Amino acid sequence: MSELTLRILFAVVAAPLALVIVLVGGAPLAALLAVVSALGAWEFFRIARASGHRPLDDIGIALAGLVPLALHAQYLGLIELRPALIAVVALAVLTATIWLRGVEGQPLGSAATTLLGVVYTAGMLSFGYGIRYHDIVRGYDVVGAHHVALGPLSFGVPPGGVLLIFPMVVTWASDIGAYFVGRALGKKKLIPSVSPGKTVAGAVGGLAASMLVALAYARGVLVPMANLGFTPWGALLFGALVSAAAQVGDLFESLLKREARVKDSSHIIPGHGGILDRFDSLIFVLPLSYLLLGWLPIPVLR
Fold first, then answer.
1. Contact predicate 131/290, CB 8 Å
2. Could you tell me if residue 15 is left (phi over 0), alpha (psi between -120 and 50 degrees) or otherwise beta?
3. Which of 138, 203, 218, 301 could form a disulfide linkage to 235, CB 3.0–4.6 angstroms apart?
């Protein structure tokens, strides 16, 4: 079976499932983010080891998986994630290096790569849960759900789910625009030492595609389904910044792999490489989107 066939088959199964989980939210979304974060942390530590570091893999992977679940527990009112609690967990990792690494076990690099791995994966991807339950739609998921009729069936599309899909769609538009424009017009390399395949034309194409899709999504989806609007310039700005973040995220992961001299973060996804290969852009996009979505949208009065 060819790599392209594997890519298509995986996308046909995974994309609808991920869409349903995003719309449902709650525990399924937290569980999905926990699995992705834990696997992403495992890949990050794999890359770190190939670069000569010695992270505390088991501890980092466990923490990465727990972060999205802890956010869900906080949303349910079961716990409160205070800064002091986060600081104590980080200090516990530093303490563990005393016995698990010692003087000769690269304790500084071990502690640093372990904490960075958790922040880079779970810390950033968990902003997806934050966007799903963003303050601008919190408490509006049930009463504000937009009902869609599909034959004899009718179901509600929650505003929070629509909001989370927004940066995801804009990121995909950036990737697609960069790919096709880069292939058609790309001559000058963007940063060949980091990613030889990326071109200046591709970067501009991704930027333009993201801006157009952001404008279309803001007007055609957010307004009717989430009662949220953007000014035209606000939507274009959102698209441009998300595209820039997506491309930088892709370049950063390429930089890590270049140092480790590996082609893919892993081969866990059929035809797609690893978790980080597929989520590297969203790792940079989701925190920025959470911030922008607190500034740019305008409630639509009906």
1. yes
2. alpha
3. 218
